[in-house]
Design brief:
Radius of gyration: 32 Å
Structural class: alpha/beta
Largest sheet: 6 strands, mixed
Number of strands: 15
Strand content: 15-25%
CATH topology of the largest domain: D-Maltodextrin-Binding Protein, domain 2
Number of helices: 11
Oligomer: single chain
CATH architecture of the largest domain: 3-Layer(aba) Sandwich
Shape: rod-shaped
Helix content: 40-55%
């Protein structure tokens, strides 16, 4: 039985023979001797147990089986050549499609501003960004990388890079504070209207604070207004509906413009860890490695 390497070599010789139109021209193109080409075709026909080529003194033609074999063999060899080229190129310049996923607000505020810069730096990389608050299975759904929090039991077999965490921040509009006053202690929040965020089935109403001198405090918030979309909650805060507990990256612009004001700046809240998850070694994927390096550069990693 022929070895696989021999089969592919004979397949190449056969395809070259058909394109060249004669054994002599095929031998010249392949830089082989004519008897070598003839022998290769004979061995291929023996291995396939069928005749592919009708030989005559000056010409050659294909049997019906030979024509079908040629069409598929040419396709296979083209695919093999493309695969070999892609594999060789993968060790050099980052290229190809990079499929990413992240929660909607995180992607909007964290990734959207920096991805154009990444694509300009790596013009041979295509990016497909899926923003969704639904949990994605990176392997099953074909994603190269997902940015999210850890989920017990769902991250087995994945690599992860801890990126800079989200920093919780308490904010309200100047209009709201002018009417209702500015709280100076977590215990005063019970006298204020609040805006709550809901992610999936989880309501983020358990607020925890700590102070280096005063200790720890907890506040269970209730609200007339609950939203599962952070920009909607931010808009409510901008319009003076109440106090919002969100993340600094989402309200940085509004704080800089004075449209929102930070509350209780001396009281810290626990950071929210975020990770870049991926399922193949970054050393084997230049495009993935390039993006992870870019995240470290633009966002920073947790030390």
């Amino acid at each position: 039985m022929s070895r696989h390497g021999d089969k592919f070599q004979r397949m190449r010789i056969f395809v070259t023979l058909v394109k060249a139109g004669s054994f002599a021209k095929a031998a010249e193109h392949l830089q082989l001797k004519s008897p070598t080409v003839t022998k290769a075709i004979q061995l291929l026909e023996q291995d396939l147990q069928t005749q592919l080529v009708i030989r005559s003194t000056r010409t050659m033609s294909l049997t019906d089986t030979g024509r079908r074999y040629f069409d598929k063999a040419e396709f296979i060899l083209n695919e093999l050549e493309e695969l070999e080229n892609d594999t060789k190129q993968a060790q050099g310049t980052p290229r190809g499609k990079l499929k990413l996923t992240a929660p909607v607000s995180l992607g909007q505020h964290l990734l959207a501003p920096i991805i154009p810069k990444f694509m300009k730096r790596y013009p041979e990389i295509e990016v497909e960004l899926d923003l969704s608050n639904h949990w994605r299975d990176l392997k099953r759904d074909g994603y190269d990388l997902g940015i999210r929090s850890k989920k017990p039991g769902a991250d087995l077999g994945l690599y992860c890079l801890p990126i800079k965490p989200l920093l919780p921040i308490l904010v309200a509009s100047p209009t709201y504070l002018s009417v209702n006053g500015t709280p100076t202690h977590p215990d005063e929040l019970k006298a204020h209207s609040v805006i709550l965020h809901k992610g999936g089935d989880k309501l983020f109403n358990q607020w925890k604070f700590s102070h280096p001198d005063l200790g720890k405090f907890a506040f269970e918030a209730s609200s007339r207004y609950i939203s599962n979309h952070i920009p909607v909650s931010i808009e409510a805060a901008l319009q003076g509906l109440g106090v919002l507990n969100t993340y600094s990256v989402y309200v940085e612009e509004a704080l800089n413009k004075g449209d929102l004001v930070q509350l209780l700046p001396d009281f810290e809240q626990p950071d929210i860890d975020r990770f870049a998850f991926y399922h193949q070694k970054r050393a084997l994927s230049p495009k993935l490695d390039a993006f992870l390096n870019f995240l470290e550069e633009e966002i920073g990693v947790e030390q």
